[in-house]
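#dry-run=false #mode=assembly
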Amino acid sequence: MMKSAFAKRESRSGYIFAGPAALFMFALVIYPMAYGIFISTQKTNLIDEWEFVGAKYYLQLISDSAFYDTLTTTTLFAAAVVIGNMVLGLLLAVIVNQKIPMVNFFKVVLMLPWLFPEVVVGLIWKWIFSPLFGLLNHLLFTFNLIETETDVLGRETTAFIGVVFVCIWKGYPIVMLMMMAGMKNIPQERYEAAAIDGANKWQQFRHITLPGLKPIILVAIILETAWWFKHFTIIWLMTSGGPAGSTETVSLEIYLQAFTNFNFGRAAAESVIILVILMVASLIYARVLRDESE
Amino acid sequence: MRGCYVMNQNKQKLGVMSNKKTSQFVTRFASYSVLVLMTALIFIPILWMISTALKSEEDIWDTPIEIIPSEPTLYNFKNLWSTHPFLQYLENSLIVVCSATLISVCISTFAGYGISRFNFRGRSTYMAFLLATQLFPSIMLLIPYYKIFMTVGLIDNISALIITYVSFTIPLCTWMMRGYFAGISKDLDQAAAIDDAGRIKVFTSVILPIAWPGVAATAIYAFIAGWNEYLFALSFINTDTRKTVSLGIGQLIGEYNILWGELMAGALYALVPMVIIFIFFNRYMVSGLSAGAVKE
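#status=ok
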């Protein structure tokens, strides 16, 4: 009796505190998403034209090679940025976790790109990469590495590499911060014991740091994949998806489909597909990393 | 024989010692090389941005390029104010981002506390949902939101942005606050709480005052997320005087003739709030992140 009354009270308090947020989430996320799925079955201009077309856009998309190209570009882009961020973030976290002189200064410096709004990052690098009087061309000229101006963002391969580079420049600090936070939870005694046993830095990293960080690495990879898979701003400002679609990721495709072609149904269907892809990807990640730790 | 053995052992020890020294030296050398390289990669773009902003339009096109402007001028900073309603951008951004931050931090603080303290039905589903929202492509909400705002007449209105930003900051903020509350001992509130009214009172008078650093960290994240947002502003706002700073400077690049000096000056303006936040709240940012990210 007593216990169930207590549980009831517990439950009610929980609803009182968490209720408002749940209502907001329902109104602002769940309802619009359901509405988005509805729109994906309509041929519509969102104003007065509403025609039910069923799965037409989905069928169109799965047989559209251009859409596959966009998905491939997005996957390559996201994979490159996530791998770059994870490797660089982890490496830098390990480095600044040592007790060496000036390390606090470097910690602050390394966090700076995270503070930069994406718009600012996109603009600065577009200017640096500019074929006319941009800094990169200037430096390449100075060191005699090129003879004529190179338009980094004007050629397919270099544009892709350039955009990935800039996104890593912007994105690694958050991974670094997460890894630094995770390392705080690894007991120092383990390292001391390992050092007495004669383990070198690499062995300590391999057998203590990495296993200790596993849970947070999993979270970081899932979040990073989701973030970069749907990234828009930096790519939009630097290349707008060009040249020749070499940097056109799904977010740009959806935006253009909706606000340039006014093909809202198709754009909504594309976003539903992306959601499914991201869900499946994170399930796979979780499975793989869990199996490995067993 | 015996002496020989001792000597041998000593030699071995010495060998180990010097090996250790060398490997320590190598590790340090490698560490600092990486740090210096990264510092250069971070500072060069920043200095280039400042240098460009301080040059007149003619000096930008001078060859050879001057890294340090010979005749620095504040012309770009002033001119941006007269050619674009920049003060208005700033005001819009502050209204949108501060309102959204306030709303989502209030709601998330309550929710984070509720999740960390009470066992209610649907709790784990709710938590899973909050994490899953991170996977939702924000762009998936773009079209439904556009239609909904069109119906209620909020297109080209900054209120639409407040609502949008609240929608994507609540999950992250709730998650962070939950982590923070989980780190505060339950003994504090459990002893005092009897009924709902008591619980709310305990929350506001006992727990909240201790949780300030966590609230501050969460607010900073919400602020940064809002300040950086571009896509929704781009899609919902058309009128120049209703643009946010992000949108305003982002669209300078679409203009026929890109004025890099003004653009870089605009970029520097957009950085000001971030720098202020960083100087004053640096401590909270890292501690808040570790609380939110690590605690199960």
